Automatic annotation (TrEMBL):
Transcription regulation recorded as keyword: no
Record protein name field: ABC transporter ATP-binding protein
Claim: ATP-binding is one of the keywords in the record: yes
ABC transporter domain mapped to chain residues: 5-239
InterPro entries: AAA+_ATPase (IPR003593), ABC_transporter-like_ATP-bd (IPR003439), ABC_transporter-like_CS (IPR017871), ABC_transpr_LolD-like (IPR015854), MacB-like_ATP-bd (IPR017911), P-loop_NTPase (IPR027417)
Superkingdom of the source species: Bacteria
MF terms (GO), sorted A to Z: ATP binding
A Pfam family per the record: ABC_tran
Record-linked SMART domains: AAA (SM00382)
Keywords: ATP-binding, Nucleotide-binding, Transport
Length: 241
């Protein structure tokens, strides 16, 4: 397994002087392909900052960020933008689907923006929706879908194409427990296919789906542990694997 994401002593400082905030303080994190890592911590502890830096949406103030073995700060702006489009998928709490596009159009959009022909992008998007059990919903607009379905479309959009890193910031925050659990199952299965996943959550039950939990406090990683036995371990026992 190769490390798809590696943070080495990464710090992020917002502002300067009396308003300075050290949102992230010398954070080290390695996530392998196939691994799902949950990030937990109080509000303001730096969870979203960690994700935006991992996804190169923001630059670190110091330290090194490597995606699929390549140091992000050494890339040209163009290469970094291409990596963001092709290698990294994001899922947000509020889904961020475009309301004027159907489910399949939403999923196809990042491919089309990346220069894939419309017909091919649509086929790829349909396949991704199919894998998430959403074929029958492909032609619907976001406001014709349930919250759980919308989030599954957002996940399809985040993993479509050849992504290596999936970053999810409280992806189940707007969902009830049944839909939240379905989304977790999906994230878990997606990462099993070799994608590295990092997910922020407040919910210890949902975090127990991850391989590992990273705890943040005041920008510090204070602990990294295997989660307590949760639903995932029950599944493993049931299937005898
Ligand atoms: P969390 O996601 O754990 O709630 P964040 O990563 O959003 O925490 O924020 C960590 C700290 O950095 C907080 O004190 C927050 O106010 C600050 N912060 C986050 N983004 C910015 C920004 N763009 N400008 C200034 N301060 C910020
Ligand atoms: Mg946050």
């Amino acid at each position: 397994m190769t490390a798809q994401l590696e943070l080495r002593q990464v710090s992020k400082v917002y502002g300067s002087g009396p308003t300075e905030v050290r949102a992230l303080d010398r954070a080290d994190l390695i996530v392998e392909g196939g691994e799902l890592v949950a990030v937990m911590g109080p509000s303001g502890s730096g969870k979203s900052t960690l994700l935006t830096i991992a996804g190169s949406l923001e630059e670190a103030s110091s330290g090194e960020v490597l995606v699929a073995g390549t140091e992000v700060s050494g890339m040209s702006g163009n290469d970094r933008a291409r990596m963001r489009r092709r290698a990294i998928g994001y899922v947000f709490q509020d889904f961020n689907l475009l309301v004027g596009l159907t489910a399949v159009e939403n999923v196809a959009l990042p491919l089309e923006l990346d220069g894939v022909r419309a017909g091919t992008a649509r086929k790829t998007a349909m396949r991704a929706l199919d894998e998430l059990g959403l074929s029958a919903r492909a032609g619907r607009y976001p406001d014709e879908l349930s919250g759980g379905e919308r989030q599954r479309v957002a996940i399809a959009r985040a993993v479509v194409g050849d992504r290596q890193l999936l970053l999810a910031d409280e992806p189940t925050g707007a969902l009830d427990s049944v839909n939240g659990e379905a989304v977790m199952r999906l994230l878990r299965a997606t990462c099993r296919e070799g994608i590295a996943g990092v997910m922020v959550t407040h919910d210890a039950q949902l975090a127990s789906w991850a391989d590992r939990v990273v705890f943040l406090r005041d920008g510090h990683i204070v602990d990294q542990t295997a989660p307590p036995a949760g639903p995932e371990s029950l599944l493993v026992t049931e299937t005898g694997r």
